[in-house]
Structure formats: structure tokens, C-alpha cells
Amino acid sequence: MFHFGQKLLFARKRWLFLATFSIAIIMASTISIFTSSEAIKASLQENAYQLYGEHSGVLIGIDATKEEVSAKTDGAGQYQIVNQYEIDVNKTATIGWMDKDALQLGHIDLLEGSFPIDENEVAIESSYLYLIDPNWKVGEEKSLHLNNQDVNVLLTGIVRDYSAKWSVPYDLDIGRNDFPNIFISQKHVDRGETNFLFKFNGNKNKVEKRSREFLEPYTMSGFINQKLLFEGLIDFNTISTSAFIFQTLIIITSICCVFTLFSYLHSNQRKNIAVLRSVGAKKEDIFRIYISQSIIIFFFSLLLSLPLQVIFYHGIIKSSFIQNNFSGINIVFMITVITIWLAIIFFIILGNSIYSIRKIDQYSTNELRREDFQIKHLKGWIAKIKSFAITQFALQILEYPKKVILALSTVVFSILMVLFSIYLQNESAGIWEADEDYFLSASEFTMMDQVEHLDMLINKASFFSREDVEKLEKTSGISYINKTPFMMDIHPLISSNIVTPAIQDWIRQFNPEKHKYHKQLIIPHVKYVLINEQNFNELYVNNDYQDFKGKIIISPPSESRNPNDSLIGEHLSFVRKSQGSGEEITTQEWTFEVYDVISGNNSNLAFLTDQSNALTIIMDEQTAFDHNLLPGYLELTIFTDDALSNKDAKHIDELIQRMSSLMPGSLYQNLNDFREEDTKISFYVGYLGKLAYAVSITLTVISIIVIFFSKYQSQKRRWGIYLSLGMTRKQVFQYLILEMIIYIGSAIVISLSIFLIAMKFLEHLYPIPFYLKYYCFVILFLYTLLLIGSIVLNKVMKRQSIFSMIRVED
Amino acid sequence: MRSILKANQLIKTYDRNSNHEVVKSITLSVKEGDIHVIQGRSGSGKSTLLSMLGGMETPTSGKVYYKDASFYDLTEEQQANIRGEAFGFVFQSLNLIPEFTVLENIELPLQFINNKNKKWDTEELARVLEIEKHLQKKPYALSGGEQQRVALARALITSPKILFADEPTGNLDPSTTKVIIELLTGLNQNQGLTLIVVTHEKELFQHPHRLYVMQNGRLKES
Ligand SMILES: Nc1ncnc2c1ncn2[C@@H]1O[C@H](COP(=O)(O)OP(=O)(O)OP(=O)(O)O)[C@@H](O)[C@H]1O
Ligand SMILES: [Mg+2]
Q1: Looking at CB atoms within 10 Å, which of A203, A288, A423, A807 has the fewest?
Q2: pLDDT truncated to tens, each residue of chain B (222 aa)?
Q3: Which of residues 115-144 of B touch A (CB under 8 A)?
Q4: Which of A378, A382, A727 is closest, CB to CB, to B112?
Q5: Testing the interface with A: which of B112, B136, B140 to mutate, by most A Cβ within 10 A?
Q6: Helix (H, G, I), strand (E, B), or coil: what is residue A497?
């Protein structure tokens, strides 16, 4: 029976080629999408581990052994903070050790040298080393002042900066719950509280869930590696989801295509099968024929798909992520998933065969042999139509309704696939128009407490010092820095008798309970902007800066009713609550005169951008620092010159990196890199889209060819009869083309409706007409295809004689 | 009388590679009102010849003339017109359209011709051929012989000048065969219908104008 199935297959060489070719494309595309997305994920993961460490979280100061922690997690490393070293007045380095597992989990690498082994040996993070002594070389000894005594230590290695990038606890306390900047050997350290890095395996959500469960009993002394999970691995979802979407789309399109292809084979084989049954073949024999055919096609396709896979795979990797890292890939997982995909494809082929056998079973052998056995199902209403043209046309379309539906869905899915890949590509590219180059935040979280309805800072403030920022501003290549002053704990107060409607509205919105402090209303959510003389002169061309010093300018939100309510000349108080090293709370108060009230949206000055819906208080920078209103800056957005020399760029990069490397828990973003990452993802999605696009177009072309051909084939006899009775070939051709136009036309209408409905629910940056433009291309393409198809069909038809059309039964 | 149909050195090879000629250089001439009968063994090329004469198969070489016009050199439109109005063809394999009723099948040719005033009334033709009871049935519900008569009716409905019939009595019993032969000879005598009939029954027509025997693609008059 195997032999017989093989014979039947090879009798249709062209069909066999089309079928294996389409299935090979389907296999190659789904598998290469999968393998390349895995490779990309592996390289992203490696990147993320390098930046944020591989640990899922950290346990601090607990009384447990490493074995206990290891037993409850999928891996643990131990480390300990031992001491602090004061580099200068406002910078201390943390001293500690990490065991091998912790170093490995953290992906902490040495730039040079080795980790310390003996007492009085150290390895130092490169930025800290630079701060301590830029000239200290590996292998040299140096005397450090530690615990009120000078100690001679040997530098054994330079550690790649890591600690500032890592997630830190909310209540960050340098020297207690951060990470070592100066590594010492694990021997000879005082026993005490120890800390652990721990890891859970699994996907992001599982890791997060398990980590939270694990940390539950240690509430105050552990935290999750937020940065790894929420920044490092953030692209994972995009990649997995888009890979999955495209795989599914390809599979759906291919189901339609395979069904179309095979329905042609099966309707041709049906007569043969009937003959076989009439000479005694059992149902199982027929079944064996179909299985053997499925296997043959499957393996042929598999063979053909191998070279295609290599091409697709390299296309995807090249077009998106240059790093091609296989180290992180789980081979067993890969093979399992590939096997599953292949199995799905195999069962689509086989299922389709079984489906058609099931149908054959419904007819008697005798009926099967009657060539007209399907005709009985034609609806009675067709018989009632008196017009020959309409009857004929109805016959054409309704002869194989299932085939028509299949063909239609293939085309519909292909169109949809093209449109959605265009959609995903464009939308994932995002719109990056801003030109800022770096964003720095001194601390990602600040912990506040409410004291008499005022926010009070409870952890030690991390900030960029005024000197550092000024130095940065003066660096060549930096054009402008937008600075957010560290003034979250400064609250302006206003007496009820001078409050203006605009401010009243503001208070109503953000302080609805109208909380007061010492009988004055608290103005909530104020934004502070500090300006210098140059900024002032840009704002007031004719005024004298000296008059403004020591005063404030208020800029109410632009939508307020009457921004010019005169507060000018009135005084506002500012208050700050703070907690000293003990528990006592101190209060500081200041009073400033209002110099002017300006409208928020009349400004196109850089330092006043985006003030339109905030209540802004503008103050002289010098005055603010003189009055101790702020310790420094919380956030910096740095703009560099457009024409930046490579040397300057490198220098700036180093400077900025160093600023943030010394600040655990700070956020450093090179927005150019950030944008580049983002484009990479969109390139990846774009490539997938193009691949899916190419695959779906190919499948559509194949399906349309098969539909065209099998339609013609199955109706050839009737056309021959018509021709013999005096119909012209031109008329036959018109009927055929009209039929195709109707199919493609309805596919277009259906897919357009689905797309428009989907767009209603999907968010999209680009307007619908933008996508309709592409849609028109797709339609144009389909009709070009139709045109080519009909030219070919016309040629074929001209070549065949009426006699052979009637006589030859394929 | 001048000839209505002429064939000049018709050759047909189906397989270009093997050069096997199914029809080997046949020349013949048919006068209007003639009855030509072609006999021969199975596979000798009778159907192939008939289809070339009837405008259904382009010859590999040679020409077919209908009223002095080289048929296969005419435009597609003109060829279709001749097929529709001047020729009637009964195929060996009948070729009824299974989706249409007997009536629709018989009247089918009228859809394609310009001259719609048919000379035959369908009912009458059906009565003559003894299939008037089956007009509303689908072809598959008819016996082989009944189907054969439907095919004949379809070929005659347009009152063609020439009727090409490939084994028109193949499935019929002697008495039905007689009815049909009488009809055809009657049409021949009264309306001058030219008949070109392929058959293996020697005595089908009593006095054919020409009787040929086909042998390995060659035509011999006997
Ligand atoms: N389309 C075709 N392709 C290849 N060979 C063909 C084709 N049509 C007919 N033949 C071959 O041409 C030869 C003559 O066939 P034809 O049908 O003309 O024979 P016939 O005399 O009508 O036979 P029968 O009495 O059985 O109907 C046969 O050997 C047949 O195999
Ligand atoms: Mg024959």
C-alpha cells in the first residue's frame, strides 16, 4: 500500500512539488522564527545579567546558613558588608566580601587581576578606584586610613562597575545594605549578619512570584532584583509574543493552504480510491495509503526546509541582534519545541487526509464511481433560475463550496498577516523624537513619611551635588542640562486671605481636604525650577536680576481662569520637616516675596518647558542653595551638542557613567543606547513581519495557483461541452475571471472588515489611512497576481483542444 | 453539388516525441446531403478523425474546409459560430451536463447561438426520440440509451447542417436504433442534413453515400 500511495503521489509531480515546497516554507519559517527568537532572548538575557546580575533577589542581614537558603531556592551566593571606607566628605565606599557563588550569580567580572585571597588584599570597583587614587595599579600596595588607623593593602584586581546598576533596597543605607565596592578576601572576617543573593529558575512571572513567596517571611530584610526583572528582561515579552503571533499566523495560513492543496489531491484521488475499494481494498488499506502519502510529503518537505531554515535564521539574527549567543540556550527545550511544531505540521497534513477518508466513507463504492456524485447536493433554487449565465455562475461557485471557503480564508489570512506585520513593525518602532541624550536619576525611590500633612524624607538623600553638575555643564560637548532640584520635601504655604482663584483650584484638585499647616494652606504638588542670571534675562529682557534675587516667580497651570491674579508683592512661606540621626524632627521655614506671576504656557524657554499643567515656582538658584533649600539635584536630563566629536562623546559618557556608578540605586540611561535597543526590537519584529509577509504571499500565490488550476481542471469538461456547442473561448475566460475577481474581492472585503474592527480595539500610533495605503498595495499585488494567472490560464486554454478537454479526465 | 466539408491530408499525432500518427494523412470530401459512415476497430482513430472534422481538435497538419473556408484558420469567434449553428456533435461519451435537467441539456446550445429561432420544438424532438417523459429529470436518472438520445436531441436542436455522431446507437436496442436511424435518414432526405457517423454496426444505414473503414489511422473506402 505504501508503494501504491507513492505511485499516486508521484503521478502528480507538479502538485507534489507545490505541496512540499509550501510545507517546507511553513516548517522553515516557524522553526527559524522560534530558534532565532530563542537566540535573541539568550543574548538579551546575557546582557541583562551582565548589567543587573543574575540573582532574582537579595536577602539582607538574616540569621541563616547558606545551605538553608540554597535548599529553598534554585541557587544562592553569600556576601557580607564588613566596613566602610571614607573616600572624601560625601563619598564612602563599602567594604565586603562575596563568595564564589555570589560572584558568579552577580556576573561580577574583573577588568584586570584577580579577587583577593589573603588578608590585606583588595579588589576595587573601577569608578571607586579612580576616586580613591587613579594611579593605583594592580600589584601595588597602598596605605588606607581605616578604622582610625593606617592599613597597607595590596590591590589584586579591578572590578567592572556593577554596584550602582543593581537594584537596592528601598531603605538604602550605604555601608549597611548595599553591595561591596571594595572586595576583601572571605577569610578573616568578623562573623555577623550575612547577606545572600538568591536565584529562582523559570520565566519572569514565575521568578517574581516565587521570589515574593520566598521573601514573605523576611519582609524587612529582602528585596527583589527589580531591575533585572523589569528593565533587563522587559524585551522578552515583546520577542516571545511577536514570535508566537507570527508562528500562529503562519500556521493558520498554512492550514488553509495545506487544506486547499490537499483537497485538490483528494478530489482527484477519490475516483482511484473508489476503484480500489471496488476491487476489495478495505478502509484500513486506504488509510495506509493516505498515511504513507502524508509521511512522504512530510519528509520531502523537511528535507527541503533545511536550507531554507538556515537562510531565514541568519536573516533574522543579522537584521536585528548582532550578538549570536548560544550559550544560554537550552538545547533540550529547543528540540522539544521544534518537535512540537513539526508534529503540529504533520498532524495538519495527516488530519486533513483522515478528514477526507471519513467523507469517502459516507458514500457507497458505487456512488463514488459516478462522476457526478457531488451534484445531487446542489440546491434546488439553482434549478429555478432561468438565466443561463447566472445558473452557470452559481454552478461555478457552488460546485465545491468548501474549497471556495478554504481558498477565501487562505487569501484573507494572508492579507491579514501582511497588514498585521506592517502594523507591528510600525508600532513597535515607536516614536522617538526627543533629542535628549542621557537621563540620570539620583535615586529611583525616595521614602517619605507624613508629618503634620507634610512629606518628610526618611531615607538618606541621594543627589547630584551642585559642583558636579556645574562641572558637567561646563564640559565641552554638553549643550544643556535640565535639572530637577531635590526639593520634594519643601512645601509652600499660603494664607487664606491672599489665595487666588487659580491656586484655590489647584489646592482643590490635589489637597481636597484643604490641610493646613500653622493656619496656612499647603500648596501641593509644586514643581520647582531654579534659574540663574542668564535664564532670568531670557525671561525678562528689561528687568534687573538683582531685583529678583531672593524672590520667587509663580507660574500657575495654564488652564486656570485668571493667571494674572495679583500676588505680586505678597509673601509665601516654605517649610521642611526633617529627621536627624536621632528620632527628633526639625522644622525649617523660609519666606519669600512674590516677584511676578506668569502664565505657564507663554514660554518657549528650555528651562521652562512643559509647565503648562503644573504649578511652578521659579527661584534663583544661588538663593536656593544659600538658604539650604536643597542639597543638590535629583534628576538630570542631559543634552549634548549635535556635532559631537568622538573624543568628547567618550569623555562625556565616562563622566556621566562615573557620576552614577558611585550612587547605588541610581538610574542611568544612555537614551541613545536605549533607542538603539528599541530599534533593534522593532527591526526584529519588522523582519519577522517581512518573513511572515513573504511566507504568506508565497502561500497565497501557491493557493491561488492551485485554486485556479483545480477550478479549471474540475470544470474543464463542462467548458469543453460548452465550447463544442458554440460558446467562444472568450466567454469561458470571462466566466473564470469573474469568478476569481469575486473570490479576491470578497477576501478583500472580509479582511478589511476584520482589520478595521481589530484596529478599533488595538492601540495604534499611526492613523488608519496610513495602513490603508499598505492595504491598497496588497490589493494591487493580488490583482497583479490575478492578471498573471489569467494570462497563463488563457495560454493553457488555447493550447487544449475541445476534444481533449472533454476526453481527458485527470 | 459542391462539397460542404473537405479534409486535406489530415494528420494527428498526440505524442510529439514518439511521432506515432493516430490519423495518417486522410483526405476526404463530403457533399451536402451525404451520409458518410466510418467503421473500424477500436483505437483505429475514428473518434480522433471525427473530432478534427467537427472542429473539436486541431490537426497536427492538414486542413479542414467548411464551405471553402479553412476551419482552423478562422477566428475563434467564427469557429464557435460554426460549431454552434452549423455543426451538431454527438460524443461517444455523451457529455451531458449532470447539473442540468434533460430539457436544459437539450436546449443548452441555444444559449450560444445568435440565430435563436430554433427549427425544432424541444417537446416534439423529445417525442420523436421517445424521451419526452424524462425532460425534467437529471441525466444520471436516465438509462444509458436514454442518455444517448438526449445527446442526439442536443445535437439536433439547432437544426445543424452537418451532424457528427460518434457511435450514436452504441447503447441502444435494435428497435430504438431503428427509430433513430429513421429519424436521421428522414432529416437527411427532407432537410438535406449531412451525416458523418462513426459506428461499428455494419448495416446501420442501408445506403450510405460513402462507407469507410478505418485501419491504423488510414481510411479506406469500401
Ligand atoms: N488525447 C490523447 N492523447 C494521447 N493519445 C490519444 C488521445 N486521444 C486518443 N489517443 C490515442 O489515439 C488512438 C485513437 O483513438 P480514438 O479514440 O480515435 O480511437 P477510436 O477509433 O475512436 O476507438 P473506439 O472505437 O474504441 O472509440 C488510440 O490509440 C488512443 O490511445
Ligand atoms: Mg471512438
Answers
A1: A203
A2: 678 999 999 999 988 777 888 999 999 999 999 999 999 988 899 999 999 999 988 999 999 999 989 999 998 889 988 998 899 999 888 788 887 889 988 988 888 887 766 667 889 999 988 899 999 888 888 888 888 899 999 999 988 999 999 988 877 888 888 888 888 999 899 888 999 999 887 778 888 888 999 999 999 887
A3: 138-140
A4: A727
A5: B112
A6: coil
